[in-house]
Amino acid sequence: MKVVVISGSPRKNANTQIMMKHVFEYAKSKNEDTKLVNLSEDGFDYYHGFLNEVEYGEKTLQAAKDITDADIWLIGTPIYNSMFSAALKNLFEFINYKQTAGKTAGLAILASSNIGFTDVQTLLTQLMSYFRVVTNPSSVFMTADTIEDGKIISEEVKSRLNELVDSTLALSRVE
């Protein structure tokens, strides 16, 4: 089983990256074939058209391949202006929906306050539906005040993130 963890914030030193690195480490402990796509790293291209019309960099093409090849997607995004990140939306422009049916996704959403989580969860779930991906209904909502000095300080949040990984892996095995 292949797992890809996607950190959907383009910001350097993003709290989303901290959240998703925790998810990555925990998922890797459960499944060795786990990869991380971290959009805060340099080298990701903007989508400009079909792959046969435009040349894209190796990092972007490898991320698209890793996502397409994975059986499970663990996706984390910040909330920006009541929406998931544009960088995450851009990344999914590279994914061929004809090659993703039956995969499983788990969602983790980070915000500065408790407003807007379900709106963004709904939008991400709709995006997953477009790709015909089964989405774990137990998303994790996390606020930025649970992170200090580059670490998640809440054991309860860590537990919920671990449960997201466990339940998404289990859901994938059922499908």
Q: Which residue ranges are poorly predicted, with pLDDT under 50 across at least 5 consecutive positions?
A: none
Give the tally of β-strands: 8
How many helices? The count is 5
The helix/strand order is EHEHEHEHEEEEH
The biggest beta sheet reads: 6 strands, parallel
Q: State the end-to-end CA separation.
A: 12 Å
What does this protein structure show overall?
This protein is of the alpha/beta class. The protein has one domain: Rossmann fold (3-Layer(aba) Sandwich). It is built from five helices and eight strands, in the order βαβαβαβαββββα. The longest helix has 20 residues, at 155-174.
Summarize the topology.
Elements: E1 3-7, H1 15-30, E2 34-38, H2 58-69, E3 72-78, H3 86-92, E4 104-111, H4 117-130, E5 134-135, E6 140-143, E7 147-148, E8 151-152, H5 155-174
Parallel strand pairs: 1-2, 1-3, 3-4, 4-5, 4-6
Antiparallel strand pairs: 7-8
At a glance:
The protein is α/β, with parallel strands linked by helices and about 180 residues long. It has five helices and eight strands.
Keywords:
8 strands, 39% helix, alpha/beta, six-stranded parallel beta sheet, 175 residues
